[in-house]
Each structure stands twice: as C-alpha cells, then as structure tokens.
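I had to read the description of the data format several times before I understood it. Each protein is reduced to its one-letter sequence and a matching series of backbone shape codes. The format is easy to grasp once an entry is in front of the reader. For illustration, here is how one protein appears when written out as sequence plus structure tokens:
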Amino acid sequence: MVINTNLSAQNAATLLMQSSANLSQSLQRLSSGSKITSPADDSAGLAVSMKLSAQMARINGASNNVNDAVSFSQTQDGYVQQVNSALSRMSELSVLAQDVTKTTSDRALYQQEYGALSSYVNNVSTQSFNGVSLFDGTTLNVTTDSEGNTFGMVGINLSGASYAAATSDNITSISGAQQALTDVKGAISQLASDRANIGSNEESLSYYSNQLTALNNNLSAANSQITDVDVAQESTNYAKENILVQTGTAMLAQANQLPQSVLKLLS
C-alpha cells in the first residue's frame, strides 16, 4: 500500500473528467438543438453543412428574384388589359366615324375621344416598375437558381410600329377612319401576341419558383440530418453521463480516503 501515488484516485479523476466533458457536450447539444457545437464534433459534417447553408441562402435570393419578376409580369398584364379596352373602344370609334350620316362635327367629337385614348396608350408605354421600364421591349434575364443561371423574360414594346400607327391616326374623315380601323386591328393583334408572351413568362417563372421551393426544402432536410440533434437520443446520453459524473465524484472521494488506512498500520 502506497501513499504518494494513489492510482485509484488518478483513474477515478480521469474517468470523472471524461464524464464531465461528455455531460457538458450533451448540455450544449440539447440547449442549442445542434449536434455539431464545435468543429471537433464532426469536421466533415460541418463542412458539408456550411456548403448546404450557403446554397440555401443563394436559392432564397434566386427565389426572391423570381417572385419580383412575377410581380413585374403581373403589373405588365394589368396595364395591357386596360390598353386592350382602350384599343377596342378606338376600333369602335373608327367604325362609327365611317357612318355616312355623320357630319364633320360628329367625327370631330369621335376624334376627341380617339385622341384621348391614343394618349392613354402612349402614356402606358412609358410606365416602369421600380425604375425598370415595363414596355420598352427589353428582354430581362431573371436569375433562376443558386448557380446564377437565367431565364429570358420576353420584353413587350408598346411603342412599336403597330401601336404607333394606331395612336397617330385621325378619324375626322371617312378615309381616315378606314385607315384607323386597319391600324387599330393590327395593334389589337399585336397586343394579343404580347399578352400571350406575358402569360408565357408568368407560367415559366411559376415553374421556376416551385422548383426553387422544392429544392430548398430538400436541402434543408439534408442539412437537418447532419446538424440537428436527436433530442430523444441526446436526452438518454445526458442522463447516462449525469449518473456517471455523480458516481464518479463519489468514487473519487472514496479513492482519496484509501491512503488513510495506512494510519491503522502505524497505530
């Protein structure tokens, strides 16, 4: 029996230190909800999780871009619907102005309304969305994924030749009204094509939005498998380590008492 070197106490202290470290780790995991509280816990898993988190952040950015583009297209469609109503009325006026029973004064009144509607169509062509022109015909490339790939959103040009011809006509004469009818019909045909492009843009953007949402959910689930703590399992580990710390503390106290038995040999 020795006094200077208490191997039992040293072993008990080492085991107690390990149990205390494990208990502290369980506490951190349960309180944070993450099973990776430091790089040492799972260095490879942490690296993968960091890349997944960065990709999800980029996907959220792309999703915002797509949603803004959808709002842009919806704003375009709202204006186009009103332009369609204006052109329809302009075509009606051009037919009314061809009535042989109407006087020049009557046609002048028709022209007054026709001109006001033409001004409205021209005004719509200058509208913008957050400073970006809605109807200058520019194709806008919308970012659709985390890698920066884009979708070309076809532009609409309300200042094109078809619209310009219709809005510049004068229906104060029968011949002028006949020409106006031809031009307005051409503008309506062009508007129908343009609105179909807007609808196609919205449909494509909707698919991209759904795709980004699904991808983000899948990546989030994969990241959860790597980083999120299993509370049930970790609670069991916590209970075990807590018991080991308590018993280890008690045994260390007992081990420290063993050298005192030497006194009985000396008495």
Remarks:
- The CA atoms of residues 80 and 215 lie 34 Å apart.
- The beta strands are 128-129, 132-133, 140-143, 150-153.
- The mean pLDDT is 88.
- Residues 43-227 form a domain with the f41 fragment of flagellin, N-terminal domain fold (CATH 1.20.1330.10).
